[in-house]
Structure to design on (180 residues):
């Protein structure tokens, strides 16, 4: 009888040990999730973009926009410690929307129609910087498998070619209106 009790106790210990191993493996899978790891790498770049944007736009950013970007930054800092990929993706998407809003105001304030890249074009260096910044944001969203706004679908599909196409259209409209 003592022998059976000892064997039963031994079997219970083995079951408990196996259950703990399975639980640990499950936790490792959560932390080893490729999407989650990718998002955590992107978070570093998002913090850099926030810093660049707030420093560059210090004179043009409204108090409400600054407060909102700070709230989203704190939310992302908290999300970074967790394992909820969808929450991280949503927060990053919200941050990029606000960054684009802030950058648009700044780019408009910096626009100088006389500072074109060539004498017979309307394209300025500010236009190029703005489009490249927008393209980077779309690439980040695309790498997170986030939904991309309809107005930015061409960037997601064509990449740099979309920027060239946009500039070509702008110059063609200018040439056609000033033809004659």
């Amino acid at each position: 009888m003592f022998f059976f009790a000892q064997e039963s106790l031994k079997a219970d210990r083995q079951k408990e040990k196996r259950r703990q191993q399975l639980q640990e493996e499950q936790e490792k899978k959560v932390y080893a999730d490729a999407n989650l790891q990718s998002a955590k790498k992107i978070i570093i770049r998002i913090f850099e973009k926030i810093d660049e944007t707030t420093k560059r736009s210090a004179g043009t950013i409204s108090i409400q926009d600054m407060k909102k970007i700070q709230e989203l930054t704190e939310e992302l800092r908290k999300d970074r410690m967790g394992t909820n990929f969808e929450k991280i993706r949503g927060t990053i998407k919200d941050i990029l929307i606000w960054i684009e809003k802030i950058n648009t105001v700044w780019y408009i304030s910096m626009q100088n129609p006389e500072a074109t890249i060539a004498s017979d074009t309307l394209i300025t260096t500010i236009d190029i910087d703005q489009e490249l910044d927008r393209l980077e944001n779309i690439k980040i969203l695309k790498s997170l498998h986030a939904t991309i706004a309809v107005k930015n679908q061409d960037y997601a599909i064509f990449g740099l070619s979309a920027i060239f196409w946009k500039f070509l259209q702008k110059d063609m409209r200018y040439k056609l209106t000033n033809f004659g």
Q: What stands out?
A: The chain is about 80% helix and 0% strand. The chain has two domains: 15-110, 114-180. The first helix runs from residue 2 to 31. The mean pLDDT is 87.
